[in-house]
Design brief:
Layout (H helix, E strand, L loop, with lengths): L26 E5 L3 H11 L3 E8 L2 E7 L10 E7 L20 E4 L3 H14 L2 E7 L6 E6 L5 E6 L3 H9 L8
Parallel strand pairs: 1-4, 5-8
Antiparallel strand pairs: 2-3, 3-4, 6-7, 7-8
Length: 175
């Protein structure tokens, strides 16, 4: 069995007084080249807002999330910009998500997908669509962040309905 020793200078006690009551999905992390440009892009093209920023000897980081769901079930997009020569994962590359690997955001209407596609096209970051795809995919467009990661906007994909049908919760009324 491999035993991992604590990193020098890293405290072993708990740092935060609030945490989940069960194991849960909390974040996805992406390496970025320019953290400020990435924060600005995600705040323009998604519903995510800056929650926290940090910096240490290895680089800068930012947490973005949805303020409407943050307290009950936070799911955070973590952005990390490593300083030259300080990437702890080097020499491994940090490839962008795509073309299939993507972050998915469900919109409330086809018109909302069309709106983001138009804005992304005007900004030069529309990669695909909008287009009606098969039932399990829905109406989608793909846009690219400043580092080339793919973000999907979908409508009528069925994630909410399927989760509630399978896991037994009542569906929320349409907005």
């Amino acid at each position: 069995m491999t035993v991992f020793n604590e990193a020098p200078g890293v405290a072993s006690e708990t740092n935060h007084s609030i945490g989940p009551k069960r194991t849960t999905w909390t974040h996805i992390a992406l390496a970025v080249k320019d953290i400020d440009a990435s924060i600005a892009w995600y705040e323009r093209f998604t519903h995510l807002r800056l929650l926290a920023r940090g910096e240490d000897e290895d680089g800068k980081n930012a947490w973005l999330g949805d303020p409407a769901q943050a307290a009950a079930a936070p799911f955070i997009l973590v952005l990390g910009q490593f300083y030259e020569g300080h990437d702890p994962f080097a020499p491994a590359p940090h490839p962008a998500l795509g073309p299939f690997a993507h972050l998915g955001i469900e919109a409330v209407s086809r018109a909302a997908v069309d709106e983001i596609a138009t804005e992304a096209k005007d900004a030069g970051c529309l990669a695909f669509g909008p287009k009606q795809m098969p039932k399990q995919i829905g109406y989608v467009c793909f846009i690219k962040d400043p580092d080339g990661n793919t973000i999907e906007y979908s409508y009528d994909q069925g994630v909410y309905q399927t989760a509630r049908e399978v896991w037994g919760r009542k569906a929320e009324p349409a907005r």
